[in-house]
Amino acid sequence: GESVGLHLPTLSVQEGDNSIINCAYSNSASDYFIWYKQESGKGPQFIIDIRSNMDKRQGQRVTVLLNKTVKHLSLQIAATQPGDSAVYFCAEIPSGGGADGLTFGKGTHLIIQP
Amino acid sequence: DAGVTQSPTHLIKTRGQQVTLRCSPKSGHDTVSWYQQALGQGPQFIFQYYEEEERQRGNFPDRFSGHQFPNYSSELNVNALLLGDSALYLCASSLGGARYGYTFGSGTRLTVV
Description:
The complex is a heterodimer. Chain A is mainly beta.
């Protein structure tokens, strides 16, 4: 079936560098995408979202890019800090309602090197 | 402002037993969704409760059932536990039956032995 997936299970970056976390989705009917951050022992925490009628959205130190042509979503984190260490999930909501809640990918573990 | 509260935080059950997990939504939220997160995986949608009714359901067997109370709190019940039910169970609250604007709790870690 259709699902949201991620390209890399683990990403290691130097503190202060920019991080880019990628996500491929296959459900062309999805119209809303969300990035979550999950720290050890905690539930997912909302980072940023984007609707399918947009291709870029910026938050504080984070930017989400959506390329509908190739069904690709990315999260860019500027000036990565130790507190950014976590697992990052992309999630999608199909348009037109549906009974599946959010569909999450498997996650990318972001490791910050000092 | 209290966030989402889940209890217990950890639980160990024996295969075949039944378990009840509890969730209190964030203040002001009226909708509760439950997710199962296996180790190393993303959360999977179980079901959503709004106005004390199950509104949406994911691909989970009938062994998984739930309830929402008038104060918007919710319970997740799992009968006839299997080893494969071992996971982190996450509760997410939102407003008006929405699937966005979630606030997640920290989860209940269920281990079935």
